[in-house]
Amino acid sequence: MTKRNIIIVILAIGLVVGLYYGTKVETSPEKTNTAQEENVEKAPEEKADEKPSAEEELAVGKPAPKFTLKDLNGKDVSLSDYKGKIVLINFWATWCAYCDMEMPDLEKLNKENDDLVVLAVNVREGKDIVEKYIKEGKYTFPVALDESGDVSAKYLVSAFPTTYFVDKEGLLLGAVPGMMTAAQMDEIVGNIRAEIEK
């Protein structure tokens, strides 16, 4: 088994585990108690009909579902804007304690790596709340507002934070449900980069 296949399998396992534990969605944000979910917080309930369409199937090795959202300046931000870079799509909310703990490491990762971008997709919060949080944290990575929750539903997000990894060609590599450490981020990105260089 090649190293690329190993990476895909590891990320796929993370995606499957996240989807399995995310099938029961709470109606209000609150911390979870189980050991398997110790680094995630449940997302508010999504509408049942907000699933990816057949042409936008959420699957490892397939194109990541497309989306266009507004940033904090009111400009359109699309996943396709970052083609040619490794993209970490981080779904988060300001009320999520684990998201808050992860943010400084995401900022560092984004600043220190020219070949990748952290795209922080805030879910179901207003621009003013998100803008205040980002300014107070002095974060510089791009932020997109998923105020309706449609994009997070398309990506089957049921807990925060959840991070998806997309390669330079726009293919979905997998996801990690829950908070990552800086070391975990570096290891995953390093493995992705090593495969690209082969």
Q: Which key terms come to mind for this protein?
A:
198 residues, 33% helix, 5 helices, 9 strands, Glutaredoxin, globular, 21% strand, alpha+beta, seven-stranded mixed β-sheet, two-stranded antiparallel sheet
Give a brief rundown of this model.
The chain is α+β, with helices and mostly antiparallel strands and 198 residues long. It contains five helices and nine strands; from the N terminus they run αββββαβαβαβββα.
Unreliable stretches covering 5 or more consecutive residues: 15-37, 46-52
| Structural class assignment | alpha+beta
The total beta strand count reads 9
CATH architecture: 3-Layer(aba) Sandwich
Average pLDDT reading:
82
Rg = 16 Å
Report on the biggest sheet: 7 strands, mixed
CATH class: Alpha Beta
Our estimate of the beta-strand percent is 15-25%
What is the helix fraction of residues, given as a range?
Answer: 25-40%
The helix tally amounts to 5
Oligomer: single chain
Q: Separation of termini?
A: 15 Å
The sequence of SSEs as H and E is HEEEEHEHEHEEEH
Question: CATH fold name, please?
Answer: Glutaredoxin
Instruction: Give the neighbour order of strands across the main sheet.
Output: 3-2-6-5-4-8-9
CATH level-four homologous superfamily name: Glutaredoxin
Number of domains: 1
Task: Please tell me what the overall shape is.
Answer: globular
Biased composition (Basic and acidic residues): 39-54
Region (Disordered): 28-58
Transmembrane segments: 6-23
GO molecular function: antioxidant activity; oxidoreductase activity
How would you describe this protein?
- Keywords: Membrane, Transmembrane, Transmembrane helix.
- This is Alkyl hydroperoxide reductase.
- GO terms for molecular function: antioxidant activity; oxidoreductase activity.
- The chain crosses the membrane at residues 6-23.
- By secondary structure, the chain is an alpha+beta fold.
- The chain has one domain: Glutaredoxin.
- It has five helices and nine strands, in the order αββββαβαβαβββα.
- It has helices at 3-21, 97-112, 127-137, 150-154, 182-196; strands at 41-42, 68-71, 76-78, 86-92, 116-123, 143-146, 159-160, 162-166, 172-177.
- Strands 3-2-6-5-4-8-9 form a seven-stranded mixed sheet. Strands 1-7 form a two-stranded antiparallel sheet.
- The radius of gyration is 16 Å and the shape is globular.
- 35% of the residues are buried.
